């Protein structure tokens, strides 16, 4: 399990995180509208949005790495119930040393053989870290799928690589298959963790006999996540392109830019400006001028979307 994490999963996870990091720099100056509750919110940059994804993956890598030392603790020499009955006094130390030499990993004797035989909490914890990565990947892939929805009737703020035709009945339709593939992997990993959690809880008295299903699900999760990280990076993330025209239109039409007016004209009056603009189908600027709340010039000075993405620099 440790070997699979270190050689198959972690390098691919780090590469995916770095790909998102490159997008953070690439998209740093693209101001867009944010969304909370799937509704318009205040602005941020596309770089900000992608920085959240990069950080999620960084944190996931750290959690997985932190689980590795505990997986290197062996109950070897505990024999039947942890007492070490019928073993030579030097057996455990010599076997652990030989296994460390053979595998290249710093294996250690478990601090308590009774615990190490009766449960598999270290694997359960590691599986939890894998599940957390799956949760992060699911959220990231689903966000990207939302942002790329369209091409004419969705959000349409991102363009994804067109990997293959996506519909047998709708000519020309291209689906976000790479995002969908990642989310299906994540669903499987979450299911594996549920199975592994139940198996980990079934250590009856001095021995957990569910190790085969624990090992099967843990190893499958590692394999699937490593493959998903690689495929998602190569076939989707590296080829993501922003649709600047649509991003700009959404930004300019959002009523939530009115938030910048609240410190100057008050929350209630700002809300009335937004309501007027929504009901009349006009811009916030037009509404503010029509209601004689602000002049057009004053509105332009106060409502600057780019400045709203970095308020502490003002």
Automatic annotation (TrEMBL):
InterPro entries: Fum_hydII, Fumarase_C_C, Fumarate_lyase_CS, Fumarate_lyase_fam, Fumarate_lyase_N, L-Aspartase-like. Keywords: Lyase. The keyword Lyase applies. Residues 2-191 form the Fumarate lyase N-terminal domain. GO terms for biological process: fumarate metabolic process; malate metabolic process; tricarboxylic acid cycle. It comes from the Eukaryota. Residues 257-310 form the Fumarase C C-terminal domain. It holds the Pfam family FumaraseC_C. One of its GO terms (molecular function) is fumarate hydratase activity. Gene3D superfamilies: Fumarase/aspartase (C-terminal domain), Fumarase/aspartase (Central domain). Belongs to the class-II fumarase/aspartase family. Fumarase subfamily. This is fumarate hydratase.
């Amino acid at each position: 399990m440790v070997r699979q994490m270190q050689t198959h999963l972690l390098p691919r996870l780090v590469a995916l995180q770095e790909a998102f990091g490159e997008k953070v720099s690439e998209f740093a100056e693209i101001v867009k509208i944010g969304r909370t509750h799937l509704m318009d919110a205040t602005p941020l940059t596309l770089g900000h949005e992608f920085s959240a994804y990069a950080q999620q993956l960084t944190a996931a890598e750290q959690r997985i790495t932190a689980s590795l030392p505990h997986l290197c603790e062996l109950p070897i020499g505990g024999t039947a119930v942890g007492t070490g009955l019928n073993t030579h006094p030097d057996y455990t130390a010599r076997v652990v040393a030989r296994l460390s030499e053979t595998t290249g990993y710093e294996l250690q004797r478990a601090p308590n053989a009774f615990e190490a035989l009766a449960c598999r909490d270290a694997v359960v914890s590691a599986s939890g870290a894998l599940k957390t990565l799956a949760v992060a990947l699911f959220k990231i892939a689903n966000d990207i799928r939302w942002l790329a929805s369209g091409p004419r009737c969705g959000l349409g703020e991102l363009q994804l690589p067109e990997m293959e035709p996506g519909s047998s009945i709708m000519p020309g339709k291209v689906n976000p298959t790479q995002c969908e593939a990642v989310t299906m992997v994540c669903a499987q990993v979450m299911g594996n963790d549920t199975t592994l959690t139940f198996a980990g809880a079934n250590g009856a008295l001095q021995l957990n006999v569910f190790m085969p299903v624990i090992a099967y699900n843990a190893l499958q999760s590692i394999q699937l996540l490593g493959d998903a990280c690689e495929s998602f990076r190569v076939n989707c993330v590296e080829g993501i392109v922003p649709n600047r025209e649509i991003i700009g239109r959404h930004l300019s039409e959002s009523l939530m830019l009115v938030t910048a007016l609240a410190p100057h004209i008050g929350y209630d009056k700002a809300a009335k400006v937004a309501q007027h603009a929504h009901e009349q189908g006009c811009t916030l600027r037009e509404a503010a001028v029509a209601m004689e709340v602000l002049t057009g010039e004053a509105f332009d000075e106060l409502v600057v979307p780019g400045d709203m993405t970095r308020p502490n620099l003002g």
